[in-house]
Amino acid sequence: MLGVGAWSAFETRTTMLAERKEGMANLVDSAAGVVKAYYALAQSGKMSDEDARRDALERLAAMRYGDSGYLFVMDSKPVVLMHPTLPKLVGTQVGDYLDPDGKRLFVTILNAAKAGGHGFAEYRGRLPHSETAVPKISYVTRFAPWDWNISSGVFLKDIDTVYYETLVGHLAVVFVIGLVITAAMLVIIRNVRASLGGEPDEAASLAARIAAGDLTRPVAVRAGDGTSMMAAMRDMQGRLRSTIGGIRRAAESIAAASHEIASGNHDLSQRTEQQAASLEETAASMEELTATVKQNAENARQASGLANNASEIALKGNDVVSRVIGTMGEINDSSRKIADIIGVIDGIAFQTNILALNAAVEAARAGEQGRGFAVVAGEVRSLAQRSATAAKEIKQLIDASVERVNNGSALVGQAGETMTEILQAVRRVTDIMGEIAAASEEQSSGISQVGRAVTQMDEMTQQNAALVEEAAAAASSLQEQAARLRESVSAFQVGDGAAAGAGAAAGVVGGPNAAASSGRVEPALA
Fold first, then answer.
1. What's the per-residue H, E or C state across 157-182?
2. Boundaries of each Methyl-accepting transducer domain copy (predicted)?
3. pTM (2 decimals)?
4. Domain for residue 511, yes or no?
5. Distance (Å, whole) CA 68 – CA 158
6. Domain that holds residue 29
7. What confidence tens digit (pLDDT) does each residue in 190-216 have?
8. Quick one: which of 30, 32, 31, 50 has its CA closest to 42?
9. By the 8 A CB rule, do 113 and 141 touch?
10. What is the CATH number of the domain that holds 360?
11. Domain check: are 161 and 281 in the same one?
């Protein structure tokens, strides 16, 4: 603001000086115009040169501007030709006249017009009726035909007076404004200190300590102060200490969780042993299945021998049945077709049994949400349709065979005795086949046991895999959390007895309800 005031005063002085120069230059230029007019009259012969010069000087002596502005004329010697206020100088050579600073003032004025025919000259002159020397400026223009230098000068005292008055006024305004700003700043500083609750440096130092993790130093707060920033930082420090205590207890909980994981791994080991036992049971079932298969093979050999005996007995009745060979041939053909269809039905029954076993395995594995059972059920339905078709064909063939058998019934009667022996042999074969069927049932039961054992083994394997994945994920998560907790807690200094101090801080900050009776600080963490 001081600079603005000084600049404004300087601009005022510059403007006034420019106006003075412009007025002075206009007067001198007007005088030069008058001189040129008289010179033109002399050149035209209307006036003599001497009269023209005399009249021109008289005209110039009468020209004024302002209260004290005037013109004077001198030649280049320099000799004063006209001076309205100092007529005693007229005709005097003034080249040696000096101003109070020792400068030849009239020579200075002449030198200002040498370069361009006109110009300004600055020097110091005495005020009228005074010995005081003050700055003065003159404007001069040269009229070469008559060797005249027409000049006028003005004092700068009044301009400087206005300049200094303006400068002092601006300085006074700046001083008043400065007082107002100072008072406002004092009020603001007082309010800021009240809001901070202490010195700004102290608040900044406290904030820096808390940011660095140092929560051990007490915060000094004025009595009854509960709204300042220092009071808020005290409460914040207390809550931070409470939070750190909770984090440390959380670390202990993580340690307990790690112990539980170890216990889970032990359970996993026991289940693995159970799985091994199930595998042993599976092996035993497989051995039983092998024995059953061997028994079935032995029965099959016995059935083969009996079939041979039946063949020999059938030879005895060869003569009897020779007459029915043709009819029985047709029956034999139909029987072959029946055998083929029965084979298909047997295959379907076998596949149905396998699919039923698979369906049981899928149901046991997936529980109520087994989607694979639907596929197995579809296959069962398809085989059932094939069984129905085969049964229909069997019925048709049986009908045809019955008709042919009726045609050969007379011939079959003659072979009754022989067929009786054959029937006995066939009965024995039937008995053996019954044993084979029983063995097959045992074999099916053994296979079911194998399936159940495999199902149990698969379920336990899946459970073990899930437990392993969960244990690995939990262990990894616990390790990361433990590392983060250690890193976070290590950044803070809460002093000795951090847990107890944290609880106490929580009680101070939050009041009597800040901590539960158990001493836990989960609410503060939330």
1. HHHHHHHHHHHHHHHHHHHHHHHHHH
2. 250-479
3. 0.34
4. no
5. 12
6. 2-168
7. 766 666 666 676 667 767 777 777 767
8. 50
9. yes
10. 1.10.287
11. no
